[in-house]
Amino acid sequence: MEIDKIVKDIQEINGYRGLAILSREGEIIYMDEGEDRVDLAFASSIFTDTFYTLNGATIDIGLSDLIRLEVETEDGAVFLIYRSGTHSIFTIFNSEGNISLARIILSKALKRI
Fold first, then answer.
1. What is the mean pLDDT of each run of 10 residues along the chain (113 residues)?
2. Burial level of 24, CB count in 10 A (0-12/13-18/19+)?
3. What is d(CA 70, CA 92) in angstroms, rounded to the nearest whole number?
4. DSSP state of 4
5. Cβ distance 23 to 30 under 8 Å?
6. Sheet holding 28-32: strands in order across?
7. Please, which contacts does 75-78 make with residues 24 or more away whose CB atoms are closer than 8 Å?
8. Which of 52, 66, 1 is nearest to 29 (CA)?
9. What does the DSSP 8-state code read for residue 36?
10. Cα–Cα–Cα angle for 93, 99, 102, rounded to 5 degrees
11. Whole-prediction pTM value?
């Protein structure tokens, strides 16, 4: 299955902490909490809501749809949300991880699901 391959590719990135794949409606269709202490279901829901709120703001000011959101916390957690027309992938990485590679793989992954 394609999702299994995508998940494996993301899990192999240095600094990986967890991921959730969500439907366009925000429902979790796959989740890997890893060994993180973050409630991934809750975090992905909150960040997805925020993503869609920000997306509405970009539309309101005459820009196009958002395709990604990246946030870094003071304690070094990096949250990445990448969205296609049908799915979103929410991930958590350590800031010391290979975030550049994560960006590339997430962009490519959404084209495959």
1. 85 94 90 83 92 95 95 91 90 93 90 75
2. exposed
3. 10
4. H
5. no
6. 28-32, 16-23, 87-94, 77-83, 68-72
7. 77/17, 77/38, 78/15
8. 1
9. -
10. 90
11. 0.88
| Tokens standing for residue 102 | 């994560």
**Looking at this protein, which amino acid is placed at residue 40?**
L
Cβ atoms of 62 and 73 closer than 8 Å = no
Tell me 74's DSSP state. Answer: T
Give the separation between CA 83 and CA 42, rounded to whole angstroms.
18
77-112 per-residue burial string, b: 16 or more CB within 10 A, e: under 16: bbbbbbbeeebbbbbbbbeebbbebbeebbeebbee
